[in-house]
Design brief:
Helix content is 29%, strand content 35%. It is an alpha+beta fold. It has a four-stranded mixed sheet, covered by helices on one side. The chain has two helices and four strands.
Length: 75
């Protein structure tokens, strides 16, 4: 999946992946995709709920070893 920016939030605990994602989303244009990498297991629920509440679209997420990758399209 093509993303405009990759956010490395590995090693950060809640709520920092959300805080960093929010800041990164402010730096991209509507319709662009942000890729987020995190090791926080709670991020699956947190980022899904956050994206929905902010009008963004969670396009996909996948687990790769210990890293969870998300692709969020800015709404």
């Amino acid at each position: 999946m093509k993303s405009i920016k990759v956010l490395d939030a590995k090693g950060l605990a809640c709520p920092m992946p959300i805080v960093k994602t929010k800041k990164a989303m402010e730096e991209i244009e509507t319709g662009q995709v942000l890729e987020v990498h995190t090791t926080d297991k709670g991020a699956k629920n947190d980022l899904t709920a956050w994206a929905k509440s902010r009008g963004h679209e969670l396009l996909k997420h996948e687990d790769e070893n210990e890293v969870i990758k998300f692709w969020i399209k800015k709404g």
